[in-house]
C-alpha cells in the first residue's frame, strides 16, 4: 500500500474507512502534489482504540527505554532531514534553506531534548511523609497546524511519549505530507505498535471527532483562538485536559536608548520569517515618537529586500485573508510604506512584504492576528504609554524589548503580559517554555514545562 492510501494506525499503514481524499497543493505554482485520505470518525475511533490498547505497556516502560526510543527517532529524523525539508518546501512554499534550518532542524533538536529529559526527569519525588508520582495522563490527541508542520507535531509527540502517553495526531490538511514522513520515521525507529497513530482529515470532521472521543484524555491543539475555544468547550463537557497554543499579536518594543537600526532590521526579519505565518511574530513595532520617522524609513527599506526572499502564504484563502487585512489597514487610515494589497506575482499565493506607518492601537491591523508578512509600526509617548500599547490586545504569546541597558529592557519585559520576551534579539531556546497569556492559550510546550503538560500527579502517604 502507498502511504497516501491509508492511515498509520497500530504500527501499520491501513486503508482509510472512506473514499474521499484531500488534495495537497504547492502554494508556489498552485499544482496538486499529492493526496491523503480524508479521515472519518471511524478512522479516529480505530486510532484511539489502538492508542488505548498500547497505553498500559508504554506507560510501564522504564523512562530510560522511552528515552532510547526517542533518541532513535531523533536519529531517523536526522537521516531524513533533506527529505523533510524538501517536503515542507513543496507543501508550504517555504524557501529550501529555511526549511532545512527550521522546519527540519528544530524538530530534530526538540526530539533530542526530550530523549535527554525522559532519561533525567524526576518522575518520583519525596515530600514529607509522601511519595509523589508523576504519571502519564493517558491518550493524547495532537491536532497540529500548517505553519510549522513538523515542529508542531514533534513539540507534542516527543514530550507525550517521554511522559509515557500514547498519541493520535491529526495534522493540518494543507500540510499533511511531512506528517506521513514522520509516521514512517516513527516506524523505522521501532516504537511499539499503537504508541503513535496518524489520521489525516479535515478539522470539522476528523479533528472534531478526535477532540470529542471519550477515549482521549488530553487534547493538545495549536491553531486559531476561535478553534481553540471550540476545543476547550468540547473538553469541558468531558472534564478533559487541554493544552492550547493559539494566536498572537506580539509587540516589539524599541526603547529610546536602543540601537534603532539593529532593532528595526531584526524586527522586520522576524515578521517576514516563514512569510509571516508565525503565531509569535513581532507584528507590532513600538517606537518612541522622537525616533519614529527614522524607524519607518529603516523598516520600509528592510522590507523591500524581502520581495524575492520569502515564499507564498499557504493557500488562496490565506492570501485573500491577508490582502483583506492590508486593505482594511488602508481604509482605517494607516499608511503603506512598503508592499501593499496587490499580489506581487500572477501565479502562486504570494503577498507583498508590507509595512504600515501611522498605525494607532485601536486599528484592526493592530489588534487582530493577520498571519502574513505585514508589520504595523506604532508610536508611543513614554514608557508607560509603550507598556499600555504592548499589553493592549487580547493576546499575550511573545514579544521583544530593545534597550542599550539590558537591565532596562528586562525591567520592561517583566511588566509585559506575554509568555516569552526576547531581550535585544535573544535567540530561540528549544528548552524554554513556549505558550501564552490571555487568549493566546493554556499550557506550555518545550522543555521540562512541556513535559509536565502530559503528566498527572499521584501522592502516596506513609
TrEMBL record:
Keyword DNA repair: no
Catalytic residue list: 245
Keywords from the named record: Oxidoreductase
Residues of the Aldehyde dehydrogenase domain: 13-459
UniProt key word Signal: no
Pfam families reported in the protein's UniProt record: Aldedh
Name this polypeptide is given: Aldehyde dehydrogenase family protein
Family label: Belongs to the aldehyde dehydrogenase family.
Source species, domain of life: Bacteria
UniProt source species: Streptomyces massasporeus
Matches recorded under InterPro entries: Ald_DH/histidinol_DH, Ald_DH_C, Ald_DH_CS_GLU, Ald_DH_N, Aldehyde_DH_dom
Amino acid at each position: 500500500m502507498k502511504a497516501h492510501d491509508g492511515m498509520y494506525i497500530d504500527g501499520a499503514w491501513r486503508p482509510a474507512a472512506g473514499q474521499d481524499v484531500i488534495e495537497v497543493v504547492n502554494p508556489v505554482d498552485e499544482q496538486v502534489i499529492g493526496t491523503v485520505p480524508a479521515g472519518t470518525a471511524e478512522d479516529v475511533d480505530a486510532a484511539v482504540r489502538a492508542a488505548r490498547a498500547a497505553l498500559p505497556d508504554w506507560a510501564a516502560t522504564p523512562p530510560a527505554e522511552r528515552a532510547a526510543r526517542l533518541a532513535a527517532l531523533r536519529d531517523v529524523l536526522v537521516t531524513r532531514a533533506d527529505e523533510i525539508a524538501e517536503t515542507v518546501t513543496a507543501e508550504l512554499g517555504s524557501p529550501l534553506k529555511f526549511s532545512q534550518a527550521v522546519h527540519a532542524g528544530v524538530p530534530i533538536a526538540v526530539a533530542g531534548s526530550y530523549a535527554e529529559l525522559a532519561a533525567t526527569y524526576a518522575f518520583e519525588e519525596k515530600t514529607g511523609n509522601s511519595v509523589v508520582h508523576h504519571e502519564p495522563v493517558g491518550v493524547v490527541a495532537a491536532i497540529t497546524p500548517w505553519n510549522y508542520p513538523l515542529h508542531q507535531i514533534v513539540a507534542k509527540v516527543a514530550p507525550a511519549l517521554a511522559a509515557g502517553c500514547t498519541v493520535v495526531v491529526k495534522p493540518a490538511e494543507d500540510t499533511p505530507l511531512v506528517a506521513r514522513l514522520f509516521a514512517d520515521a516513527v516506524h523505522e525507529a521501532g516504537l511499539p505498535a499503537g504508541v503513535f497513530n496518524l489520521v489525516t482529515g479535515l478539522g470539522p470532521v476528523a479533528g472534531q471527532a478526535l477532540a470529542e472521543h471519550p477515549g482521549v484524555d488530553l487534547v493538545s491543539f495549536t491553531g486559531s483562538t476561535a478553534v481553540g475555544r471550540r476545543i476547550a468547550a468540547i473538553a469541558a463537557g468531558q472534564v478533559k485536559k487541554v493544552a492550547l497554543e493559539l494566536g498572537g499579536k506580539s509587540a516589539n518594543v524599541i526603547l529610546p536608548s536602543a540601537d534603532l537600526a539593529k532593532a528595526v532590521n531584526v524586527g522586520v526579519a522576524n515578521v517576514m520569517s516563514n512569510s509571516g505565518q508565525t503565531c509569535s511574530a513581532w507584528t507590532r513595532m513600538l517606537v518612541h515618537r522622537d525616533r519614529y520617522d527614522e524607524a519607518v524609513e529603516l523598516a520600509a527599506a528592510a522590507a523591500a529586500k524581502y520581495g524575492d526572499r520569502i515564499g507564498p502564504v499557504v493557500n488562496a484563502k490565506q492570501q485573500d485573508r491577508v490582502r483583506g487585512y492590508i486593505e482594511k489597514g488602508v481604509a482605517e487610515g494607516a499608511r503603506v510604506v512598503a508592499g501593499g494589497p496587490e499580489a506581487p506575482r500572477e501565479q502562486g499565493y504570494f503577498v507583498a512584504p508590507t509595512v504600515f506607518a501611522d498605525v494607532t492601537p485601536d486599528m484592526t491591523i493592530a489588534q487582530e492576528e493577520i498571519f502574513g508578512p505585514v508589520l504595523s509600526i506604532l508610536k508611543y509617548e513614554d514608557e508607560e504609554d509603550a507598556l499600555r500599547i504592548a499589553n493592549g490586545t487580547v493576546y499575550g504569546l511573545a514579544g521583544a524589548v530593545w534597550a542599550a541597558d539590558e537591565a532596562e529592557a528586562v525591567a520592561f519585559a517583566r511588566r509585559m503580559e506575554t509568555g516569552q520576551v526576547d531581550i535585544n534579539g535573544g535567540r530561540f531556546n528549544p528548552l524554554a517554555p513556549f505558550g501564552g497569556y490571555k487568549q493566546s492559550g493554556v499550557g506550555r510546550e518545550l522543555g521540562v514545562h512541556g513535559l509536565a503538560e502530559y503528566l498527572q500527579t499521584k501522592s502516596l502517604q506513609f
